[in-house]
Design goal:
Oligomer: single chain
CATH superfamily: Ribonuclease H-like superfamily/Ribonuclease H
CATH class: Alpha Beta
Helix content: 40-55%
Radius of gyration: 14 Å
Number of domains: 1
CATH architecture: 2-Layer Sandwich
Strand order of the largest sheet: 1-2
Largest sheet: 2 strands, antiparallel
Structural class: alpha+beta
Order of helices and strands: EEHEHHEH
CATH topology: Nucleotidyltransferase, domain 5
Length: 117
Protein backbone atom coordinates (compact mmCIF):
# COMPACT_ATOMS: atom_id res chain seq x y z
CA UNK A 1 0.00 0.00 0.00
CA UNK A 2 1.35 3.42 -0.91
CA UNK A 3 1.65 6.12 1.74
CA UNK A 4 0.06 9.50 1.08
CA UNK A 5 1.05 12.91 2.34
CA UNK A 6 -0.49 16.30 1.74
CA UNK A 7 1.46 19.54 1.62
CA UNK A 8 0.56 23.13 0.82
CA UNK A 9 2.73 26.24 0.79
CA UNK A 10 1.51 29.83 1.05
CA UNK A 11 4.14 32.52 1.40
CA UNK A 12 6.03 31.52 4.55
CA UNK A 13 3.35 29.10 5.78
CA UNK A 14 3.58 25.37 5.14
CA UNK A 15 0.85 22.90 6.14
CA UNK A 16 1.29 19.14 6.04
CA UNK A 17 -1.05 16.23 6.71
CA UNK A 18 -0.51 12.48 6.67
CA UNK A 19 -3.39 10.73 4.93
CA UNK A 20 -4.46 7.08 5.32
CA UNK A 21 -2.56 4.57 3.19
CA UNK A 22 -5.78 3.91 1.28
CA UNK A 23 -6.00 7.53 0.07
CA UNK A 24 -5.32 8.00 -3.64
CA UNK A 25 -3.30 10.87 -5.10
CA UNK A 26 -6.61 12.17 -6.45
CA UNK A 27 -8.10 12.21 -2.93
CA UNK A 28 -4.98 13.83 -1.49
CA UNK A 29 -5.18 16.65 -4.03
CA UNK A 30 -8.84 17.33 -3.30
CA UNK A 31 -8.07 17.16 0.42
CA UNK A 32 -5.33 19.78 -0.08
CA UNK A 33 -7.70 22.07 -1.89
CA UNK A 34 -10.57 21.74 0.55
CA UNK A 35 -8.80 21.90 3.87
CA UNK A 36 -5.85 24.07 3.03
CA UNK A 37 -6.25 26.28 0.01
CA UNK A 38 -9.68 27.63 0.80
CA UNK A 39 -8.42 28.69 4.23
CA UNK A 40 -6.00 31.05 2.47
CA UNK A 41 -8.80 32.97 0.73
CA UNK A 42 -8.74 36.14 2.80
CA UNK A 43 -8.51 38.86 0.17
CA UNK A 44 -11.50 40.05 -1.82
CA UNK A 45 -9.81 38.69 -4.96
CA UNK A 46 -7.65 35.59 -4.80
CA UNK A 47 -5.90 33.56 -7.48
CA UNK A 48 -5.09 30.01 -6.39
CA UNK A 49 -2.22 28.50 -8.37
CA UNK A 50 -2.70 24.76 -8.61
CA UNK A 51 0.01 22.23 -9.33
CA UNK A 52 -2.48 19.39 -8.92
CA UNK A 53 -3.17 16.86 -11.63
CA UNK A 54 -5.68 18.00 -14.15
CA UNK A 55 -8.10 15.21 -13.10
CA UNK A 56 -8.81 16.77 -9.69
CA UNK A 57 -9.42 20.17 -11.28
CA UNK A 58 -11.66 18.61 -13.92
CA UNK A 59 -13.68 16.95 -11.14
CA UNK A 60 -14.23 20.39 -9.62
CA UNK A 61 -15.06 22.16 -12.86
CA UNK A 62 -17.33 19.28 -13.91
CA UNK A 63 -19.18 19.34 -10.57
CA UNK A 64 -18.58 15.61 -9.90
CA UNK A 65 -20.97 15.69 -6.95
CA UNK A 66 -20.69 11.96 -6.32
CA UNK A 67 -17.24 12.69 -4.87
CA UNK A 68 -17.56 13.84 -1.26
CA UNK A 69 -14.57 16.24 -1.38
CA UNK A 70 -15.94 17.90 -4.53
CA UNK A 71 -19.30 18.52 -2.81
CA UNK A 72 -17.58 20.17 0.15
CA UNK A 73 -15.26 22.27 -2.00
CA UNK A 74 -18.13 23.55 -4.14
CA UNK A 75 -20.19 24.33 -1.02
CA UNK A 76 -17.34 26.31 0.56
CA UNK A 77 -16.45 28.00 -2.73
CA UNK A 78 -20.08 29.06 -3.17
CA UNK A 79 -20.20 30.42 0.38
CA UNK A 80 -17.03 32.46 -0.22
CA UNK A 81 -18.24 33.86 -3.54
CA UNK A 82 -21.62 34.75 -2.04
CA UNK A 83 -19.78 36.68 0.67
CA UNK A 84 -18.15 38.85 -2.02
CA UNK A 85 -14.93 36.95 -2.70
CA UNK A 86 -13.61 36.39 -6.22
CA UNK A 87 -11.59 33.18 -6.52
CA UNK A 88 -9.76 32.17 -9.68
CA UNK A 89 -8.14 28.76 -9.95
CA UNK A 90 -5.17 28.65 -12.30
CA UNK A 91 -3.62 25.33 -13.35
CA UNK A 92 0.16 25.15 -13.68
CA UNK A 93 1.83 21.90 -14.79
CA UNK A 94 3.89 20.39 -11.97
CA UNK A 95 7.56 19.55 -11.97
CA UNK A 96 8.64 22.51 -14.06
CA UNK A 97 11.17 23.90 -11.53
CA UNK A 98 8.80 26.35 -9.85
CA UNK A 99 10.02 27.04 -6.31
CA UNK A 100 6.53 26.96 -4.72
CA UNK A 101 5.78 23.60 -6.31
CA UNK A 102 9.10 22.16 -5.18
CA UNK A 103 8.39 23.38 -1.63
CA UNK A 104 4.91 21.81 -1.70
CA UNK A 105 6.34 18.48 -2.92
CA UNK A 106 8.91 18.54 -0.11
CA UNK A 107 6.16 19.33 2.42
CA UNK A 108 4.01 16.43 1.19
CA UNK A 109 6.94 14.02 1.49
CA UNK A 110 7.71 15.26 5.01
CA UNK A 111 4.07 14.56 5.99
CA UNK A 112 4.75 10.83 5.60
CA UNK A 113 6.49 10.86 8.99
CA UNK A 114 3.39 12.29 10.74
CA UNK A 115 0.61 10.26 12.37
CA UNK A 116 -2.27 9.44 10.01
CA UNK A 117 -5.08 12.00 10.10
Amino acid sequence: MRSSGSGIVYRSTTKTTRLPNTASIFSAELYDFHLHWLSFVVAKRTILLSFQTISSLQALSGFKLEIHFVQNIIKDYTHLTHSGKTIILCYIPSHVNILGNERADTAAKSALSLPIT
